[in-house]
Structure prediction request, 233 residues.
Amino acid sequence: MVKKIEELNKKLKDYSAVEILKYFLNEYKNEAALSSSFGAEDQVLTHMMLNLDKDANIFTLDTGRLPYETYSVMDNTNLKYNIKVNVFFPKSEDVEELYKKQGINGFYESIDNRKSCCNVRKIEPLKRALKPLKIWITGLRAAQSVTRVEMPLVEWDDNFQVIKVNPLISWSEDDVWDFIKENKVPYNKLHDKGYPSIGCAPCTRAVKEGEDIRSGRWWWENPEHKECGLHAK
Prediction:
């Protein structure tokens, strides 16, 4: 697998994001999918993928604690592109057990509690979503945080046993917003209110100008801890 990843990175290093998506959609069909949180980068990729293939595989995780604005852009996306993004929910029995153990907002109390919540609401549903796939497409960019600086275009994700592809890895924030404006792509209105990175409502807040764009996620933790396990190295 290491050799295959190296070959893919070498082959695709000069490809545009659209060309990268086209390659994987042609090679893997519905075994390649985008996991979308309806953030700006994911909306860019959604637009690109659906222009390449109107039946492209796109899914999201509904944790049960998303902001209203996220549901709004989900609806706008479905309407604009005439699709229904596939939705994966946490298992109800797991959420009930989590509540019994830590209450409704126990994730604020410790990193272990927060990771337990992420595991129930995000990791377990993601495992189900990725199980039939060979290619996991993400909207990760190297400039988003200190935990993502070294991420390559294509990598093997050992946690989920799948090839992960990051077509926008070298894009800047300006690149993303220029594309959204030029193509009239629906986006989460929280971005206009100082939210560059948007997750669950209780774990996301606006950031001040000049702050790291991921500083509004799990703001009570140190930067090196600010991954939920979806994109852990």
